[in-house]
Amino acid sequence: MTERIMAAADRLFYRKGIRTVGVDAVAAEAGISKRSLYDTFPSKDALVAAYLRRRILPFPTTDQSPADQVLALFDQLHSRFAEGDFRGCPFVNAVTELAEDCETARAIASDYKEERRRHIASLLTKAGAPCPDLLASQITLLFEGAIASMLVRQDPTIAMQARAAAAVLMRASDAEVQTKSGRLLAGY
Fold it and tell me: I need a labelling partner for 127 at 20 to 30 A (CA). Which of 61, 91, 120, 183 fits?
């Protein structure tokens, strides 16, 4: 039953927004009673927290070079944009919608965003970047900016523009950052 509730919450919260979707709607979408939902999740805040935690996926493991793995994050973002149902980052959406009402959602979102930045920093360290933490913060800003721009402009190519900017930043860091093919990052 938990999986049905989570799938329903994920669909509804992402498509319609957390504030506009009540527990009645989640229960109906899951095909259960409101009481059964509350037996599993004692409050809407607990359900929202579970929804956000479910959205945290492990970073893919690949045999690509570290630099290529950083750029692949933008490729994945482009694919997500191109699906046509992109409604923004669910973590940012939750923090925006709930404002001061849910510190748990803010903490989950903050932890998730920092985890991605640390993942990028780790890849940049492996790639030989001289200041991987700073560069990771800059690349993360490009990533987040691409998400915001996509919402306004509805242009999936924004992710590829951000990818190109990330490649420029990586080159400018004076690192001996090599792609899988062995060439220095030049354009993309």
Answer: 91
